[in-house]
Specification:
Helices cover 29% and strands 24% of the residues. The protein has 18 helices and 24 strands.
Length: 541
């Protein structure tokens, strides 16, 4: 050991893909502290750093890639899903309601019964969404709130409607819908901004609740090979200050090492600025990203904003959360704060409105604007987007959940692109990959599988949807590595195995580039490494 010389770790003995170029592999990686010092042949690194290597990690045939990063999720929401009632696996309304009943019986002292994940598209065609009359049959004594899987709609029972003073006289809030029956009474289904009528009366979250949710989510992320995430949580849990402090406490004080890039909801942006924050301020572990805006809803709840009516319900073409003028104002506000925007836009008309706002108030200074989801676009919108400094934040796993029902909902029309990941990349639009957890499973391998195979791993028929839009494995993996790094302006220190880059690695039991793509979800994560530190080791679990 050389006196006064910082010692390092040699990683070798497996398939090490830098992802700088397709099929580019190296024999070994040498790291010091939290950085990659060198890559090359094993013999070369052994010789060059002789006397400085105090730790050797033999991968024993495993495959190492740059650390996988989810470019769009809700970390606290994922932790909540892990810790409370999750209805996403139930295939009938009857079973979901029975689960609510049993959950309520276990929590006989709870003030509210809260759950999430229900999805009527998994049920029989005549079952429909959960309504107040359904919930009243299983829980009568307390308010119940169940978030739909998309989180753009929720179902509540009569107790909850009464607690929120929602009745036949309550007007729809701007950007929201209170679903009503034929004589005007609320059904218990609230969409988009109407959900706030319930959120505003929920019991206040505690610091311990937030920390526990973040802790649970990060531990699950480790297990799935994720070294970081771009997450949007700052306006939903008691306000900016409480939520931001919870992230700092868990990640930096408690030592749950994780790279959290925090998108800032437009309702929390003033609080962030008052606290001295701005784009990319923070530190290695917790930093602020773009200002988050919602321009439309979801396809599942028919609130994604389309340029034409829904095929299966011509009475609606979706819901604009904001008018064009209001959306312009929000983008201008971000510019006044020298910040990029990250805008949720699923439908093609929402995508068009966002482009208009960005073109009217172009980004100045650092960063890149994001259009999140981009599930339905048109050819002329792609041409406009190519002229702007932006990135598309896509969720390949949505394909597995949304097909085939989405085809009946929106149809296939000329010059319209559905979940067109290959087209977007081929046109030169940079893309990053995320899950939108808890809406979809957090597992990045499920997203990579969906992007490559255009199938649902749970579909016994393995039906392929729009095969011409399938990505190569290399393209799909880069969505969750180089793509996520580019979205957060970290392309010079993350997303590749390269000298000077952070020592963040995902180590897998199989070679993801050589295995049958249909078997990608079965790959085990052997180790997750963040800043040179092994935070998850399958053998020690």
């Amino acid at each position: 050991m050389k006196v006064g010389v910082k010692m390092g770790t040699l990683w070798y003995g497996g398939n090490i893909y830098s992802l700088s170029n397709e099929n580019h592999a190296v024999e070994a990686v040498y790291t010091k502290g939290n950085r990659i010092t060198a890559i090359g042949s094993l013999a070369e690194l052994e010789q060059k750093y002789s006397g400085e290597i105090d730790n050797r990690i033999n991968l024993k045939g495993d495959t190492m890639i740059p650390g996988l990063v989810d470019s769009h999720m809700h970390l606290i929401g994922h932790g909540e899903k892990l810790n409370r009632l999750d209805l996403s696996s139930y295939n009938s309304k009857k079973d979901a309601l029975q689960a609510v009943k049993e959950y309520a019986e276990k929590l006989d002292n709870a003030e509210w019964i809260i759950g999430e994940g229900w999805n009527e598209n998994q049920w029989g065609p005549k079952e429909g969404p959960i309504l107040a009359q359904d919930l009243d049959e299983v829980v009568q004594d307390r308010p119940v709130m169940l978030k739909r899987i998309c989180r753009h709609a929720l179902a509540v029972n009569t107790k909850a409607l009464q607690a929120a003073n929602i009745d036949q006289h309550t007007p729809n809030p701007d950007g929201g819908v209170i679903e009503r029956d034929e004589i005007g009474y609320p059904t218990g289904l609230l969409k988009e901004q109407a959900q706030d009528l319930i959120y505003d009366i929920l019991p206040e979250v505690t610091d311990s609740y937030l920390r526990n949710s973040i802790r649970s989510a990060i531990k699950d992320a480790y297990r799935l090979g994720l070294t970081g995430a771009h997450t949007e949580d700052l306006s939903y849990y008691g306000g900016f200050e409480q939520t931001y402090k919870a992230f700092k406490d868990v990640i930096e004080e408690e030592g749950y090492t994780f790279r959290a890039h925090l998108l800032v909801h437009h309702l929390a942006i003033d609080d962030m600025k008052a606290a001295g924050g701005g784009f990319l301020t923070g530190d290695e572990w917790v930093e602020f990203g773009a200002m988050k805006i919602f321009s439309d809803g979801s396809l599942g709840s028919r609130t994604a904003l389309l340029s034409r009516p829904y095929v299966d319900d011509p009475s609606t073409s979706g819901l604009a959360i904001f008018t064009q003028e209001q959306l312009d104002h929000l983008v201008k506000k971000a510019r006044d704060y020298c910040m990029p925007v990250a805008v949720h836009a699923i439908g093609d008309l929402a995508f068009e409105m966002v482009l208009h706002s960005i073109e009217k108030y172009p980004l100045k200074g650092n960063g890149r604007d994001r259009l999140i989801h981009a599930q339905i676009v048109r050819g002329e919108l792609i041409e406009r987007a190519k002229k702007l400094p932006l990135i598309l934040d896509i969720q390949p796993r949505f394909l597995a959940s949304d097909f085939p029902w989405v085809l009946d909902r929106v149809g296939v029309r000329q010059n319209q692109y559905l979940y067109a990941w290959k087209t977007l990349l081929s046109e030169g639009l940079p893309c990053a990959g995320g899950s939108d957890a808890p809406i979809e499973p957090l597992n990045p391998l499920l997203g990579i599988h969906a992007a490559v195979t255009r199938t649902n791993v749970d579909d016994p028929e393995q039906t392929v949807y729009l095969s011409e839009e399938a990505l190569s494995v290399f393209e799909a993996v880069r969505l969750f590595t180089a793509g996520s790094a580019f979205a957060a302006c970290h392309e010079n220190d993350r997303g590749n195995i390269k000298e000077g880059y952070l020592a963040d690695f995902t180590i897998m039991s199989e070679d993801i580039f050589k295995i049958d793509p249909h078997l990608i979800p079965s790959i085990s994560i052997s180790k997750t490494v963040i800043g040179g530190k092994i935070v998850y080791d399958l053998l020690s679990e």
